C-alpha cells in the first residue's frame, strides 16, 4: 500500500543513555555505524555475542529501494541489518571476576540492554498515539478545540491535573496541542475517547506488544489489556476515570521500551505500517496498525514539525536547512528524576532516518531532542543546532 508521503525511512536508531554522556560521544557512535549501501550481495551480520564484546552500538535500520534509478540496482525490496565502520574492532581486555561482580552490582545496570529490556513511561511522546486513536475513532476534528482552554491545569472531579506549562497554553487545536505538548488538551481528548476505546486503540497500535526485534529477552511493554486490568489491580471501587487522563499523556499504567516507541513513529512515517525491527536479514514484516485520511495525516505531521520550530518544545534543536518532525517527552519517574524522551524523523516530508532517544533521569525531553538532532545532523551531514531547556 502506498502511503501519503511515499517513502520509508532507511535508518532507524534507538538509544538509551544518561545525562553524563556527551553529544559528541553519541555522534561518534553513529559515525561507527556505516550509512546503508544498496547492494544485492548478502551482508554478513555479526553475532550478538561479538557485538557485546566489542562494545559497539547496535543500530536497527530499514531500507526501501523504490526504483532502479533510486537504488542503482534492479527490483524493490526491504533490507535491514547492522552496519559498522570498515575498521576492524579492537581487542577488548578480559573482564576479571571482580570487575564482573562490580558490573552486576552497578545500580545503572550496564549489562542490561535497556533499549529492548528497559521499560519507561513514554510521557508526551505518547501523545502521538493519543492523537492517532482519537482520529481513528472520529472523536475529534483536525481544527477542533477542546471545551476548556489551558490555563495551567484541568479540574477533574476533586483533583486538579496540572499542565507542564504553568502559565497555560490557551485554546488550541490538534496541531497546536502537539506543537506545545499541551497536557490540558490531551486530558480532554483522552476523556472524549473514553477508557475502553483508548485501551483498545493502544492495543491495535501494538503498544502492549513486544516490538518483535530478533534479539533475545526483549521485555513486553506494559499497557492495560482491558478495563478489567484496573479492577483486578485496584479493586472495582479502587480507581477512577482519572486513569484515562494519565494514559492520554503517556503516564499511568503505560511503560514502553525505546525500540517500541521507535516502531510507533516508524509506523506514522509509513502511512500506518508498523515494521518489525530487524538485526539479521529476515523476511521483512509490516503490519497496518492505523490509517488516516490525507488531511488527518497532514495535520499530525505539521504538529510534529512545529515541535522543532520556533515556539515548539524543541524549537532550539532545529537544524538549519532541514525540516525535522518529532515529539519531546518529560516522563515522571517515581524512582527518581524524570526521564527525557525524543522520538522523531528527518527530513520530515521524506525521511531517511528515525531516531528514538531516552535520556534516563534526564529531566527534560528537550535535552533528548538535542542529542537526536546531533545524530540526525551527523547522519545527513547538515547543521548546526543549539540546545534548549523547555520541558514538554
Per-chain topology:
Elements: E1 11-17, H1 23-31, H2 48-54, E2 61-64, H3 68-71, E3 78-81, H4 97-105, H5 114-117, H6 127-137, E4 153-156, E5 159-162, H7 174-180, H8 183-193, H9 195-204, H10 228-234, H11 242-248, H12 258-269, E6 273-275, E7 286-288, H13 294-306, E8 325-331, E9 339-346, E10 353-359, H14 365-380
Parallel strand pairs: 1-10
Antiparallel strand pairs: 2-3, 4-5, 6-7, 8-9, 9-10
Helix pairs in contact: 1-14, 6-8, 6-9, 7-13, 8-11
Beta strand count? 10
Q: What share of the residues lie within helices?
A: 25-40%
Number of helices: 14
Low-pLDDT stretches are: 27-86
Largest sheet: 4 strands, mixed
N to C succession of SSEs = EHHEHEHHHEEHHHHHHEEHEEEH
Strand percent estimate: 5-15%
Question: Using only CA atoms, what is the Rg?
Answer: 21 Å
Shape category? globular
Strand neighbour order, sheet with most strands: 1-10-9-8
Output mean pLDDT. Answer: 78
Could you tell me how far the N terminus lies from the C terminus, measured between alpha carbons in angstroms? 34 Å
What structural class do helix, strand and pairing data support?
alpha+beta
Main attributes of the structure:
single chain, about 400 residues, alpha+beta, four-stranded mixed sheet, two-stranded antiparallel ribbon, globular
Describe this structure in words.
By secondary structure, this protein is α+β, with helices and mostly antiparallel strands. 32% of the residues lie in helices and 13% in strands. The strands form four sheets. The chain has a four-stranded mixed sheet, sandwiched between helices. A two-stranded antiparallel ribbon has the order 2-3. The longest helix has 16 residues, at 365-380. The radius of gyration is 21 Å and the shape is globular. The protein starts with 10 loop residues before the first strand and ends in a 12-residue tail after the last helix. The relative contact order is 0.17.
Amino acid at each position: 500500500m502506498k502511503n501519503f508521503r511515499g517513502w520509508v525511512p532507511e535508518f532507524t536508531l534507538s538509544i538509551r543513555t544518561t545525562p553524563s554522556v556527551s553529544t559528541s560521544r553519541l555522534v561518534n557512535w553513529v559515525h561507527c555505524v556505516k550509512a546503508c549501501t544498496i547492494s544485492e550481495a548478502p551482508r554478513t551480520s555479526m553475532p550478538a555475542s561479538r557485538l557485546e564484546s566489542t562494545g559497539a552500538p547496535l543500530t536497527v535500520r530499514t531500507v526501501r529501494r523504490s526504483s532502479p534509478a533510486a537504488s542503482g540496482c534492479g527490483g524493490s525490496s526491504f533490507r535491514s541489518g547492522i552496519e559498522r565502520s570498515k575498521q576492524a574492532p579492537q581487542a577488548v581486555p578480559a573482564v576479571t571476576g571482580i570487575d564482573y561482580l562490580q558490573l552486576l552490582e552497578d545500580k545503572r545496570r550496564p549489562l542490561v540492554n535497556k533499549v529492548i529490556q528497559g521499560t519507561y513511561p513514554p510521557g508526551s511522546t505518547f501523545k502521538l498515539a493519543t492523537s492517532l486513536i482519537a482520529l481513528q475513532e472520529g472523536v475529534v476534528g483536525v481544527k477542533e478545540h477542546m471545551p476548556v482552554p489551558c490555563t495551567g491545569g484541568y479540574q477533574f472531579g476533586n483533583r486538579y491535573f496540572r499542565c507542564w506549562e504553568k502559565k497555560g497554553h490557551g485554546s488550541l487545536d490538534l496541531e497546536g496541542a502537539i506543537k506545545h505538548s499541551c497536557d490540558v488538551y490531551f486530558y480532554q481528548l483522552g476523556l472524549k475517547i473514553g477508557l475502553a476505546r483508548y485501551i483498545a486503540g493502544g492495543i491495535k497500535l501494538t503498544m502492549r506488544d513486544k516490538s518483535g526485534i530478533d534479539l533475545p529477552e526483549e521485555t513486553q511493554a506494559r499497557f492495560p489489556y482491558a478495563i478489567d486490568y484496573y479492577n483486578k489491580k485496584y479493586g472495582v471501587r479502587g480507581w477512577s476515570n482519572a486513569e484515562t487522563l494519565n494514559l492520554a499523556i503517556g503516564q499511568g499504567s503505560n511503560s514502553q521500551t525505546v525500540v517500541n516507541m521507535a516502531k510507533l513513529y516508524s509506523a506514522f512515517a509509513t502511512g500506518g505500517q508498523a515494521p518489525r525491527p530487524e538485526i539479521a536479514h529476515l523476511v521483512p514484516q509490516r503490519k497496518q496498525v492505523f490509517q488516516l485520511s490525507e488531511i488527518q495525516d497532514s495535520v499530525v505531521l505539521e504538529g510534529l514539525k512545529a515541535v522543532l520550530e520556533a515556539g515548539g518544545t524543541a524549537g532550539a534543536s532545529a537544524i538549519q536547512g532541514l525540516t525535522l518532525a518529532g515529539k519531546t517527552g518529560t516522563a515522571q519517574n517515581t524512582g527518581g528524576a524524570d526521564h527525557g524522551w525524543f522520538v522523531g524523523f528527518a527530513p520530515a516530508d521524506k525521511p531517511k532516518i528515525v531516531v528514538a532517544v531516552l535520556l534516563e533521569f534526564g529531566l527534560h525531553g528537550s535535552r533528548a531532542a538535542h542529542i537526536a538532532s546531533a545524530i540526525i545532523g551527523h547522519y545527513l551531514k547538515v547543521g548546526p543546532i543549539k540546545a534548549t531547556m523547555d520541558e514538554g
